[in-house]
Amino acid sequence: MEYAPSISQLAGLLADPGRAAMLWALMDGSARPAGELAVIAGLSASSTSGHLARLSEGGLLAVQTRGRNRYYRLATPEIGVAIEALASASLASHPARARAIPAARTAPAALRQARTCYDHLAGELAVALFERMAHANWIEVAGTAVELTASGTQGMAQLGVDLEVARRKRRQFACTCPDWSERKPHLGGALGAALLQNLMERKWIEATSTSRALRVTPLGQQEILRIAG
Description:
Number of helices: 13
Radius of gyration: 19 Å
Distance between the termini: 53 Å
Mean pLDDT: 87
Oligomer: single chain
Number of domains: 2
Order of helices and strands: HHEHHEEHHHHEEHEEHHEEHEEH
Helix content: 40-55%
Shape: elongated
């Protein structure tokens, strides 16, 4: 126990609804002032100040000073990964309750279109691509399992996705992954990771410097729509 990670400390900081709301608003990589976070969380200025102090002291937030103003952002990308993992777990364990909350109200806009989910693509773009691949018979879906068909194998090969390398990975080759912002599945597993790597190598998608949000390039906006189209 002496060397166990401070999971309970992190969980305690995330457990408060007001603090969770402020952290969620910062998931897009933005830096926001205390007044704006107070409005988002529906808290008074004094309560917000106390919560922000706890989050900063706990290592979840970093503070930037701009003139007379202080701006707060997530301290590290790993904090965002942890929060998204909890959101995905909540969706998986309570799908009916999750569907009752409109995604547009809960998902930061920059993350909703396209983002990384561990090492594969997530968001609106990923869900739409997954649906097109299913309709075009590139993949067969049974529960959480995904099988790549002969058509899908040919299509992925034409894109330049290295299927042999993906199959040699010590992990599930292809599976569904619940998308917390769209309430639908996207492609996970080694195949999902290989596809994202391919799209980035083609410069159809670019990483952003401030968060796990991904930018779809003008070329990508045209070409990705043709995949399994």
